[in-house]
Amino acid sequence: MKILGLLGGTSWVSTVDYYRFINQEINDKLGGVNAAHLLLHSFNYADIGKHLSVNDWDAVTDMMVKAGKGLRESGAEAIVLCANTMHLIAPAVEREVGLPVIHIAVATAKAINRAGIKTVALLGTRFTMERDFFINKLKDAGIDALLPEKDDRDFIHQTLVEELGKGITKPETKERYLSIIENLRQQGAVGVILGCTEIPLLIQPADTAIIQFDTTRIHSSAAVEFALS
């Protein structure tokens, strides 16, 4: 089994799910008392958030690369960035750390293609929705992404930072998310990408009339596939 290096704490709430999902799937496949061989560097998200607030991605990249090199030196054979947003800098992390980064958008695009879907809604942080690092991976796979209107994007980003990233779920927030998803469904989305690893804390499969793509689970499965390859 290959050793996976997880860069987490972005947020800790979803990093817990990564740890659980990866270990559960390894055990499902191997049985007995088998579990994943993982190394974890968990950041204090406040240190990252202060850089993101001024759009200083160079500083965030430096943090990720330093931590990634530490995982490599400890034996990691691949890097798992435990957040969609952090994949904005995935190419730099992969290049500087010298290990493959298991890309969340590539894994998600494969899952969408397996489902035979060509048009999806994309929810996530402002960076995930408005920068091209995720959307371009979808385009490469022949998938079109529909985005919420700006006011809705602002609402999603705000609640991810101020609520879901702290493990807080509010009924009124869930109602607004479901309304956003329904609007995008009416525009032609056949599926919805829960493109922030905290969104599945709020939205469950039974909540929507369209197929959900939970990026935390999809990414965890891709990590397991690598570990057992």
Automatic annotation (TrEMBL):
Q: State its Enzyme Commission number(s).
A: 5.1.1.-
Q: Which Gene3D superfamilies match?
A: 3.40.50.1860
The record's annotation in InterPro entries points to: Asp/Glu/hydantoin_racemase, Asp/Glu_race, Asp/Glu_racemase_AS_1, Asp/Glu_racemase_AS_2, Asp_race
Q: Does the keyword Isomerase apply?
A: yes
Entry-linked PROSITE patterns: ASP_GLU_RACEMASE_1 (PS00923), ASP_GLU_RACEMASE_2 (PS00924)
Keyword list (alphabetical) reads: Isomerase
Q: Which residues form the signal peptide?
A: none
Q: Which GO terms describe its molecular function?
A: amino-acid racemase activity
Q: Pfam families, per this entry? A: Asp_Glu_race (PF01177)
Family label: Belongs to the aspartate/glutamate racemases family.
- Kindly give the NCBIfam families that the UniProt entry links to this protein: asp_race (TIGR00035)
This one is known as Amino acid racemase
Look up and give the organism this protein is from.
Answer: Mucilaginibacter glaciei
